[in-house]
Specification:
This protein is α/β, with parallel strands linked by helices. 29% of the residues lie in helices and 18% in strands. It is globular and about 35 Å long.
């Protein structure tokens, strides 16, 4: 069944702005946290035309999946970053709950994200933009009039 699911990538597309966000994060600590297997995550990222982050926490790496915080805590540990300094970008209520339970701030993306009560909410990933690389991570500013959130990361 896993092989069939991995081979089935019809309709898998990137969320608007995801490629730019991942490009902005290049060279900075970031990870993919997913309930999918490693092979399925690679297949979906490839189908969406997105680069796979160098660090990933997948179904094989945790005993409990979202909404449990285990995956996000493991990712922060692997990156050497305090969970309180992490910002999660999530599109599901379970993922948002997991990020919040890990002590992280969460940017909810998309139409179903509001159900998870994220820290901030944007329509798509183009609503998140990187403004500086100065060695610090700061809270995103409140959304601007156009709904975009500025995140200073370093």
């Amino acid at each position: 069944m896993l092989a069939a699911e991995t081979a089935q990538t019809d309709g898998v597309v990137a969320i608007a702005g995801a490629a730019r966000l991942l490009a902005d994060l290049r060279g900075l600590p970031h990870a993919l946290v997913t309930s999918a297997s490693r092979d399925l995550a690679h297949a979906r990222m490839d189908a969406a035309g997105l680069p796979m982050p160098g660090s990933a926490v997948t179904a094989e790496d945790v005993a409990r999946s979202k909404p449990d915080a285990e995956g996000f805590v493991a990712a922060a540990r692997a990156l050497g970053v305090d969970p309180a300094d992490c910002i999660v970008v999530e599109d599901s209520a379970n993922g948002i709950a997991a990020g919040l339970a890990a002590g992280m701030r969460v940017i909810g993306v998309g139409p179903h994200a509001a159900e998870g009560e994220p820290t901030w909410l944007v329509t798509d990933a183009s609503g998140i933009h990187h403004v500086a690389r100065d060695g610090c991570l700061r809270h995103p500013r409140r959304p601007a009039a156009d709904g975009r959130i500025a995140v200073t990361i370093g």
